[in-house]
Fold:
Amino acid sequence: MRPAWGLSAGQTLTVRELLTGLLVVSGNDAANGIALGTVGMERFVGAMNAQVAALGLHDSHFTGPVGLDDPEQYSSAYDLAAISTAAVRTYPLFRDIVTMRSADLPAAPGHPEFFLQSINLLLGMYPPATGIKPGWTGDAGYCEVAMAVRDGHRLISVLLNAPYSYSQSRHLLDWGFVQEGLPSTLPTPTPSAAPSPHG
Structure:
């Protein structure tokens, strides 16, 4: 997880700009800025946990606006899928930002220009992909919430502690589309002449 995307004390950004930094390059400083600049850290985190409860989820608890390791901060694949689904359905701005491969935030009186290149490599690897966000911490490993759309079908997948998260996300989403009756978009594996030592 990227610790910062270049914010400095005294800069002024809109919530939209901070959300872009948070979701496109995983800027923890953007997440903290949103919390501190709106209602304060304690109330913001309280609202996060209240929202999870309102969604009827029981396997998540947040201690801060960033996803860094904390023994009292946790979630599950199911909860992350439900939270992401609710965000996509409820907030068009969220849906728009998570699809961005890059973002150019022009210079303004409160800050310099920022050019942000998405850390979500799945957007360039899997044509149906439309977001959402990867992440990594020492305890959680490589994780990814991924969204893809084909022929009006939207799927969201969640991988936790997955060392090959981009490749695994592609295959999981493709499998989901096949279950919806759509043809696979991935190449058919060619049988190997020699058996794999890993079975």
